[in-house]
Amino acid sequence: MKKQTEKNRETQTVRMMSYFIDATTEIIKKEGIDKVTIRKIADLAGYNSATIYNYFEDLSHLIFFASMRFVKKYTDALPHYLEKARTPLERYFLIWECFCKYSFESPQIYYAVFSANLGTHPINLTKYYEYFPTDLVTFPDDLKPMLLESSLSKRTLIAFNQCISEGYIQETYAEKTAEIHYLIWNGMLTMLINNRTTYTVDEATEVTVNHIRNTTAITDTHMI
């Protein structure tokens, strides 16, 4: 009986969260992420503003959860990208190509998920997928730990695992290389957000992936 009560309570929590996330998502689609306010969300969801704080720490956390709805386009597309990979290294570059394409199409969204200030209580991506596990259904099992990691440098290290185990990348340089690749991506994202480049999404993706390729320390036995 106790377990059933807890399950019912959790179901109710997810249902209430979904009301507010759906409302936030709709505002983002119609007005843009910078136009989202607690009052607009509450009005659209049909609840008072105070109720929102029973389920989310603050507005930035709610925007984070709503933004994850848009990130699903990337997670759904990635398995199709990886079908083209013939080697672990190609697979790694395709992960970045897919991520760049979708993040550069919606730079504000990906900034909200991976770079924005979430206050004193940053959200672990695991928490989102605990509430909405179906978003992971089509994702490769060996890459699910990557998806649950909110730090892009750490995500890159996880994506490197197969390259390291099969001798494409020296483990000694993996952590520094992962950080470099994150900084390359973040630099392009920042330029797109601030309109400091005329690159199209495809051009920005190509340039970024080329920089990532050129800064990957490949072992002598796997030179390409």
From TrEMBL:
Q: Which UniProt keywords apply?
A: DNA-binding
Instruction: Tell me yes or no: is Ubl conjugation among this UniProt entry's keywords.
Output: no
The record's section on Gene3D superfamilies has: Tetracycline Repressor, domain 2
Q: Which GO terms describe its molecular function?
A: DNA binding
Residue ranges of domain HTH tetR-type in the record: 14-74
**Pfam families of this UniProt entry?**
TetR_N
The Swiss-Prot or TrEMBL record marks DNA binding at: 37-56
- Which superkingdom, per the lineage? Bacteria
The name on file for this protein is TetR family transcriptional regulator
